[in-house]
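Sample entry follows:

:::
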Amino acid sequence: MLETLQKVGAYLFGFLFIFGMVGSTVLFVWDGRNNAYYRPDQDLDARIARLNLEGDLAIAVARFPQNKFAKIIYQREWSKTKTDNGPLLFPLDQLDGVFRTQAALILVDRGLLALDAPITQVLIALPEQFNGVTLAHLLSHSSGLAGSWQEGLEPVGTVGSAGRYAQANDQLVDQMIEAVSKQPAPNFIQENIVAELEMGCTEYREAEQRWYSCVEDVMNWELDLYRRNLIKLQTYLRAFKKVPLADGSLGRFALGWYPFEYGGFRVEEAPLDDGTNHSILRFSERAFSLVVLSNIPREELDARQIAREVGLIYMEREMPYPDRIDPRFPVLGERVGETQSAKNTERAATHGAE
């Protein structure tokens, strides 16, 4: 009798175990089909597809998972004219300023340049009116200069005054790099940054006086900036601090970067002139970065706004104050599927009223 009860109990336990396994599997599959996991990459693909682009666009998103190696988690290119299988190349224009800034900081680490010393110690041919201008002023666009070397470098404001992006600052930094490295600035950048990081599609075209690159190279450069392989930690940390002005307040810019608040996060962006439609946007508190390259005119598609909206797609759930962002998606539009959901809700409400 006891043996019979033991067999019945074993059979019953086995039946319930198998029934439970099958039932849980069915429920898991059913739940997955009805509550699909949100995929920001698919959402972004669908939003970009609705834009019907009339030019070239490339986007890369990368992140440093905790205690893991950095990786690119999203990379896409859109082009109606590209015919080969190679990467899309874009003229970087003023985005090449991130290379220039890093080159200057490399020379600071080597003791050949100093951030807070007058630039006239290196560029001795400059007139006395530039005595108070430092490398930190140039990199933070607080030198009080405007225009370009060709147009003249007469100061338009006091040294250490709040300024705006000026090509004159970049040109003077190039001259300082050349003066201490004894070679043209593009050559120094090529040897000490591009070659060191094996940026295979990045090149300087002498005839155009322009840097060209692809989104993967620019993103890999950005990831290396996080790793600080080319500059020291102390220099890296100072590069992202806003530079104090002569009146004691903080300026708009850090050393070659524009820090601001977005959704409750501190982010940094490469400062650009109006003629350059690219963006590097860093959520440094979350080790999360975006690169957007475009040859579409900014008035038609603003790469900086695209970067912000892509950041919101990926980072909204982590943002302390996403409600501060308004409007949320002026370029990419609302999430695909939300429009139909809203229509269904409106239709249901209408039928209910009837």
